[in-house]
Amino acid sequence: MLALYAREVKLGIRAGSGALTGVLFFLAVVTVIPFGVGPDLNLLARIGPAVLWIGALLASLLALERLFQADREDGTLDLLLMSDHRHMVALTVLVKCLAHWTTGVLPLVAVTPFLGLFMNVPPLGLGAATLTLLVGTPAITFIGAVGAALTVALPRGGVLVSVLVLPLVVPVLIFGVAASRGAMADPDPFLPPFLILSALTLFFAVLGPAAAALALRHID
Amino acid sequence: MRLAAENLGGERGGEPIFSGLSFTLARGQALMVTGPNGAGKSTLLRIIAGLLPPAAGSVDLRGADETWPDIGSAAHYLGHLNAMKTALSLEENLSFWRDFLGAPKLMPRKALDEVGLGEIGHLPFAYLSTGQRRRAAIARLLVSYRPIWLLDEPTAGLDRTAEQRFSRLMQEHLEEGGMIVAATHLPLGIKGAQELKMGEAAR
User: Under CATH, which number does the domain B2-197 receive?
Assistant: First the structure.
């Protein structure tokens, strides 16, 4: 399993583009917002965390399509499925998700504080947005794995993945934004939505890979 | 340990393509599956590997033990695709499969020597020719041990020398008590192999 993680990370870095595309997309989303909304600094600061979350969400959906497709195209997926007895498929999917998150989504979390400056988000808000993204984005990857597994046999599954996955990630978005706003605006609480966000991630860490494994086993 | 199929039937896209296949394979025996294109050779191999459900009948491993409880875990599957990542070097690819599949046997370097690719183990898989890619996929069979080899057109793209070298590897595997099921058009040069002709009735 460690070997699988190491290999997936190596592939993610070496095949390159994935992380960079995501970061550039994220950058594009966040930079156009101030032009559209106008130079009202207070308004930008207020919607800042939400924009960061939406940008990161869309950027992390971008690369999901390839999660299993590359493995299916070169025959690796057959061997991963056959090794079920030695490495449970759900566990294999979990490891692949974690590796995907490390190479594709962690860079997005890392640039969040800098992109937040474009939105005039105060330091506390920057910290909160980054922290909530760090905790919440794995859930997006786990849910996305189900979509990616379902559409793996379709030639242009990318858009379908996003459409399938978006309704399911809405709760993650709601609690993520609620927690990061709670850190800035005083009457709103920070901890309860943050804990629910963590719970969502843990919940989908179990349900996502299990469902994806089931879908992968019934491709043909 | 015996690999036994009883009254096996397979379908593709809902259309039955073969039915009523039975065979048993003991340790040290090989089965050559021959037949015209579309006779269902690949489908049969995928059913044996557990990647497709059989339409009828069953195939199982008699006398399975702790180490090899089912066919999926006891078999190497070499399909049309090589299951190698183009961005990684040959040795990286093979050492991953060695770690992941378990039951390690030869070191990647040694396995590459066996298939005649020892000199270029450091090259990315993407740089290789079709035949060299096939040889690298064959080296995967050597880096970790499995009693059953399921081979789908294993010699596609191989030159004469590589074919002979591969026959020798298969022969050694059989002598060690392994089993081979191979779908092929060309004689693979294995002595005493059973033959299963498919698609005769359909023509």
Answer: 3.40.50.300
